[in-house]
Structure formats: C-alpha cells, structure tokens
Amino acid sequence: MEVFQDMTSEREDLLLSSITGLAGGIVGSGSTCGVVVGGAVGLGLLHDKALQEGGIEAKVGLLSLVGEYSKWFKDNFKTTLCRERTGIDFYTPQGQRRYMLPDKMGKCLSHLIKTVGHLQSYRDKALPRIEVKQEDRQLTPIHCAQEVLKGIRGKTDIGDPLLERLSIVFDGGIGLQGGACGALAGAIMAIGIPFGMDIREMSFIQASKASFDSFKNLLVEKPKGKPEPYGVGKDIVQRFKEEAGAIECCEITGKKFQDWRDFQDHMHSPDKCKGLIELAISEGARAIEQHR
To answer: What is the pTM of this model?
Structure first.
C-alpha cells in the first residue's frame, strides 16, 4: 500500500494505518493475502475521484477492475489465500519461526515485488465501462465493509469517509472473488484507525520490530504493550469465526457471485450476512471503546 501510494503520488497515511491488521490474511488468520488487499485498496484510491463523481457505474467498474487484479494474482501465484501460499499458521510459535526463514519470507517479498510491477500498468488504465440496467440504478447498494465502517463510526466517532468509499473493493470477498469477508475486514480496518502503525514516521527497523511484536501478541492471552490491531483484533476474528463458521465470503455464503447485481440480490435477501455486519459493527466498536 505504501509503495502503491508513492507510485501514484496519492499519500494517505490514515489509509496505511487502517490496513495494518490485514497482513497475514486478516490478523494473521490466513485469508486473503495482504499483498492482494493492499493492491485492491490502492486501485480504489487511484479511482477515488471517479467513485465520488461517477455513481453506480464507477463502483461496478472498480469491482470489475479489482476482480481482474485478484484473478491475475491467483493465476500467477496459484492462490490468493495466505494460508495456502505460505503453509504457515501464525497462531503457533512454530509457524511464526518458520515464516522468518528465507524461503518463506523471501517468497512473499518476491511476490510483492512482481505484484507492484504489475500494478504499474494500472496507473493509466481507465475503469471498465459496464452497462448498468435502469432497475439496478434504483437499488440502494449494500457494501459489507462500508456498512461496518459507517456503523462503527456512528458508535465511536472513529472513522474516515475516504476509507469508507474505498472499502467497496471488499464486496463479495475482494472484487466478487470470494476471498476475505468484507464485514470482518471493515471491523479490522476500523480498529486500525486508532491502533494501527504510523509506518511513514517509522524507520525500517522500528516498523519491523512493531510488526514482529504484533504477531507475538497472537500467541499470548493478554497482549503486551500499547493496543495494536493484532492484539485487539484477534478476539474479533475469533468471535466472527464462531458465528460465521469461516472468514471467506465464498464459504460463508456458499456461492461465487457472477456479477454486481448477483451480489446485491444476495445482500438484500434475508441472510446471515446482515447479522454478520451487525456483529462486526458491535465487536469493532466494543474493541475501540475498551482500548482507547
């Protein structure tokens, strides 16, 4: 995300802080890779002006673009899920030690470098023009992560309109690809606003130490030091898993969405997704109030 912002001259420090907890597949849980998430949110930032001015066409176009990017990542690296790419369980000491070895961390860095190179091709790429039917224009869209971020802001006064706009990239599990649930991602991004890393004000050594300390907090019952997204967020992830049974959209819903309308039809139907959005709002707001 930081490299993407430097590449496009769109500096947003709060956005960087908010996604701190999404590394390792949402608080180290092995879901959608942080490289995929960083690129997806970066594509949203790249087209934020269109999101503000373009209405529903811009949203549909952005989801298509993010879906295309996610498919590229899967085609090149066989999967978008952290647990499948690394084979690492970050919730065990053995897993964390294994990740520090060159073959694991080096693999992730090589994928990051190749992905950043690919993302450069998107700088001058316009949003796809996708026809939106008149009846679809009359539908009030529901965006999982956005609903959670707005709900938490309403309860805590912690939030950011830019982050809420860009969070639609999480619809249907990152561009409708069935990955990490947007409702859970929204809750973790919300706690990243007050508790995330201010990475641009940190040296490489400071940022690395803070990252290692965060992952250590996954291993202890009572996290040490100041509140940070992993120590705070692991309970949210656990509570969400207990209720949803999974943290990937495709497993929670039991389907792969064909397009934006298919996703919106699902979100407007009586389904447990609405309950999970309320759960994510409640858990995220509770965590912020408890630790701030």
So the answer is: 0.94
